[in-house]
Design goal:
alpha+beta; seven-stranded mixed sheet; 18 strands
């Protein structure tokens, strides 16, 4: 057997007998300071171990060609009617999508941006509206010219007033004019305004009556509006029902539409049956007319990850627009790219990376108002540079994918119909933020280094201090050393 004396010979921590050691006041003070230093450094090391650290790198965006980018937006236009508001998307690869409606919602708003009713449904826009044959014959004048002075008078006199708001310079207004006047003459002959009184066709020249046209929110020419008068006429202007006609514009179609409107009204009665609808009139031909001149457009579109444009403008295949009367001022409530990040996830990410999330909605809450006079033909453009950011956690799991962007906006003169245009371009690089792992063994090693280091340094300081005091005492006693 190995004796205990041989085992003791490998002791690295041999002890000095207690009766050979001497305690001192300076050593006690230094021991307290060393203990406090150890505790302080241990706390700092523990805090560093518990704190999440990250590293940031810029790498090439590895998105596949099949990935699409989602654009969410909520934009209010105080002077653009929902009747003609269109959301279009284009890109440098030749993609052009016009009048997107599937993922878009529209709400009529007042000048204070407050909604005035339920969602505005514009219905499908026909790409081909039939017009009458153009023949050279003596012009017919069958409709009644309406002005701001006599408009309310005629609307109170007749249960149905159908009005053509037109502009003499408009190509589509001039194509409609012959069929409209013939229809008005035919309806007048069948339903004498003096004896029958159920329907009257009128017309308003918007170049001569701009205030009247603005009052009814006319932005495209020609606009055919159907005004119905109820039994009680206490509401504004006595209009109980208000619709826009977007059907065919030949004489036969117009006459059939007017006949269908009259068919629901008994000759003897002066009460309008609002719920009575004729099956002869297509549902797409009549749509609700906008109650106000503003529109809030919200929803999302998906685009390819290449430079492109998101365009909001007035669009119609059978109407003309006066560029001098168009105002594309707008207020952006929301404009963001990519999938929405849940608020809880975003709060967790911000605790990890405080600066993240500051630029994913840079334009939110900003207003872009055209204060120039009418006729300026101002297009408002926004130039957006988009950068993708990914955050990777310890387990190599993607915590969040976010798209941040910078924005530069301008108001530019245009010879065409003014629009609001968002030019977007994605950076080919992306920011990758990775959470760094911290080893527990490294933490333990640092703790041991702190304890050993402080203990050693304190021992050296104590030895120097003790020897200095001893030398000073010898000098005081006059001893040579």
């Amino acid at each position: 057997m190995i004796s205990s004396s041989k085992i003791k010979s490998v002791d690295f921590y041999r002890k000095i007998p207690r009766d050979l050691t001497e305690a001192s006041l300076s050593g006690a003070g230094l021991s307290i300071v060393a203990a406090l230093s150890m505790m302080f450094l241990f706390g700092m090391e523990l805090n560093n171990y518990l704190t999440v650290s990250t590293s940031t790198a810029v790498i090439v965006d590895t998105s596949s060609d099949g990935d699409f980018l989602r654009i969410d937006f909520n934009i209010s236009f105080p002077v653009l009617s929902c009747e003609f508001a269109s959301v279009d998307v284009s890109d440098i690869l030749g993609t052009n999508r016009l009048n997107i409606t599937k993922t878009i919602r529209k709400f009529s708003i007042d000048p204070n941006l407050r909604p005035t009713g339920v969602e505005f449904h514009s219905g499908p826009i026909s790409h081909h509206i039939k017009h009458g044959d153009e023949v050279d014959e003596e012009p017919v004048e069958g409709s009644v010219p309406l002005t701001a002075q006599n408009f309310d008078k005629y609307s109170h006199m007749h249960q149905i007033l159908v009005v053509n708001f037109f502009a003499p310079w408009c190509y589509w207004s001039n194509r409609l004019k012959p069929a409209w006047e013939k229809t008005a003459k035919t309806i007048r002959e069948r339903y004498d305004p003096e004896l029958d009184g159920r329907i009257l066709l009128g017309k308003v020249d918007c170049t001569q009556e701009p205030d009247l046209c603005r009052r009814h929110h006319i932005q495209g020419y020609p606009s055919v509006r159907i005004f119905r008068k109820g039994s009680d006429v206490r509401d504004d202007h006595g209009h109980h029902d208000h619709e826009s006609y977007h059907g065919d514009r030949d004489e036969d179609s117009l006459v059939k539409t007017m006949e269908a409107l009259v068919a629901s009204i008994p000759l003897e009665s002066k009460k309008l049956a609002l719920e009575g609808k004729s099956e002869n009139v297509s549902e797409n031909a009549k749509r609700p007319a906008p109650l106000t001149g503003g529109c809030r457009i919200e929803g999302y579109v998906r685009v390819k990850k290449v430079p492109g444009n998101l365009i909001i403008s007035a669009r119609s295949g059978a109407h003309s627009f006066d560029p001098t009367q168009m105002n594309m001022s707008h207020v952006i409530s929301n404009l963001s790219f990519g999938r929405k990040v849940a608020p809880r996830v975003m709060s967790d990410v911000k605790r990890l990376i405080p600066y993240l999330g500051r630029s994913h909605d840079r334009l939110n809450g900003q207003a872009f108002i055209n204060h120039r006079d009418l006729g300026a033909n101002v297009t408002i453009e926004h130039y957006l540079q988009i950068v993708k950011t990914e955050v990777i956690t310890r387990g190599s799991h993607k915590l969040v994918e976010e798209y941040e962007y910078t924005a530069h906006s301008s108001l530019a003169q245009s010879i065409h119909i003014p629009v609001t245009k968002f030019h977007f371009e994605l950076s080919p690089m992306q920011v990758l933020i990775t959470e760094n792992r911290k080893s527990f063994s490294h933490f333990i090693t640092n703790v041991c280094a702190i304890i050993g280091g402080v203990f050693t340094v304190a021992g050296i300081v104590d030895s120097i201090l003790h020897n200095t005091i001893r030398v000073m005492k010898k000098v005081e006693l006059g001893k040579n050393f």
